[in-house]
């Protein structure tokens, strides 16, 4: 962890050249409670060696984009990471080694990735969520409560909409909502999830939780949780109008994590919704 004394917490942003990376960097720069101290990109990126501000089309910031994550993490208090699973697990190991808070917004993580992150969390605070927005985390809580209140006469379907460049499906948020619904019914999501329907599938199984993924245009992110019986429907919905909601949530998590004991946390912890 960086020796910052009375200085503001120093934040490193990984995947700095991506749309989310640039938004995260700007959010850190705009926040009076934080300092941007590093920007990491994959080896081979044409941003390597460039000043981050200039690369983003603005004034120089004095921060050079690097592929040396080890050096960048050594001088920071937190890392915010919306990259890819293979990179994220490596960053988790580095965060554990240097004792900095690791905020993970990466989706598409496999069970073995999650297990590796859990190992790293024994040495440092790791905050991981499929979605960093306040609204989505409130929706997660509502989904759990409604699923708990309604029996299996109500089918549960989760429909998510994203832009045409998203590479994983269902989205991390959809899976987070599915987990919440399964917890509400006290079942394992793995045992009741219907993640793909095609052809003659037969009738829908009672008690299952269905997922549908829609990809098109520039949709930022929309999620519906449908509870449908023979006579009525309840639809819970969240629509993200601007990606800044994710950046603001991630930055809030990075600040909240300062001084926290090693362990795995999520945005419900950050927002005080797990109390």
TrEMBL record:
Q: Name the domain of life.
A: Bacteria
- Job of this protein: Catalyzes the conversion of 4-hydroxy-tetrahydrodipicolinate (HTPA) to tetrahydrodipicolinate.
Q: Where does the record say this protein resides?
A: Cytoplasm
Source organism (scientific name): Pseudooceanicola algae
Q: Where does (S)-2,3,4,5-tetrahydrodipicolinate bind?
A: 163, 172-173
Q: Where is the Dihydrodipicolinate reductase C-terminal domain?
A: 135-271
SUPFAM superfamilies, per database record? Glyceraldehyde-3-phosphate dehydrogenase-like, C-terminal domain, NAD(P)-binding Rossmann-fold domains
Task: List the protein's name.
Answer: 4-hydroxy-tetrahydrodipicolinate reductase
**GO molecular-function terms, A-Z:** 4-hydroxy-tetrahydrodipicolinate reductase; NAD binding; NADP binding; oxidoreductase activity, acting on CH or CH2 groups, NAD or NADP as acceptor
Catalytic residues as annotated in Swiss-Prot or TrEMBL: 162 (proton donor/acceptor), 166 (proton donor)
One GO BP: diaminopimelate biosynthetic process
NCBIfam families linked to this entry: dapB (TIGR00036)
Residue positions annotated to bind NAD(+) are: 15-20, 41, 105-107, 129-132
Annotated binding of NADP(+), by residue: 42
Q: What is its EC number?
A: 1.17.1.8
**PROSITE patterns from the UniProt entry:** DAPB
- Pfam families in the record: DapB_C, DapB_N
